[in-house]
Design goal:
The chain is of the alpha+beta class. 20% of the residues lie in helices and 36% in strands. It has helices at residues 17-20, 95-109, 133-147; strands spanning 6-11, 25-29, 34-42, 48-56, 66-67, 79-84, 89-94, 117-120, 125-132, 158-160, 163-165. The strands form 3 sheets. Strands 1-2-3-6-7 form a 5-stranded mixed beta sheet. It has a 4-stranded antiparallel beta sheet with strand order 5-4-9-8.
Length: 168
């Protein structure tokens, strides 16, 4: 049902600042909201999420290495659309929460038996960490909850025409 609420979408393929920000598609809704998506696709179902640590990997302490999209703080996309083709599923994952979760949990994720998992591409190699879906969701929930723990100290209110007002 929600696709009827899409007013417009724009695929971004050309080399541009948007691509460097991790934006593959811009979506505009009839409500006026808009968001950007980085599209990822796996053609085989391994039952996990593949977190990219290094998008270009030449070896330990090699200055030619480039940080992977999962940990890259320069990315500006709102969501990762993570498609697992054989299952027919596409997960829409809030990118900032994913990145913060990866930063907080990478040491634990790296204990996974399949880490590191390298992928050979045309002329370069990536270094990745497979994370079981259940663990990813648990860790994202924990990091999200941590952001909201605590109390807000409200300023002392005062009354203006029978209404309580807080001066921030």
């Amino acid at each position: 049902m929600w696709p009827r609420q899409i007013l417009a979408h724009q695929r971004i393929d050309k080399d541009s600042v948007y691509q460097r920000w991790g934006v593959d598609r811009e979506i505009k809704l009839v409500t006026g909201q808009q968001f950007s998506i980085d599209e990822k696709k796996r053609t085989k179902d391994y039952g996990d999420f593949l977190a990219e640590e290094w998008s270009v990997w030449h070896g330990d302490r090699d200055e030619r290495n480039r940080i992977g999209w999962t940990l890259d703080r320069s990315k500006r996309c709102d969501y990762i659309a993570y498609a697992v083709v054989p299952t027919g599923r596409c997960y829409l994952i809030p990118f900032d929460l994913l990145r913060r979760t990866a930063e907080a949990c990478w040491a634990q994720w790296a204990l996974h038996a399949q880490y590191p998992k390298f992928a050979e591409n045309r002329g370069y190699k990536t270094k990745n960490c497979p994370v079981p879906w259940a663990q990813l969701w648990r860790d994202m929930q924990r990091v999200s909850d941590k952001d909201f723990v605590g109390t807000v100290a409200l300023p002392t209110p005062f009354v203006v025409t029978d209404q309580l007002v807080f001066q921030w």
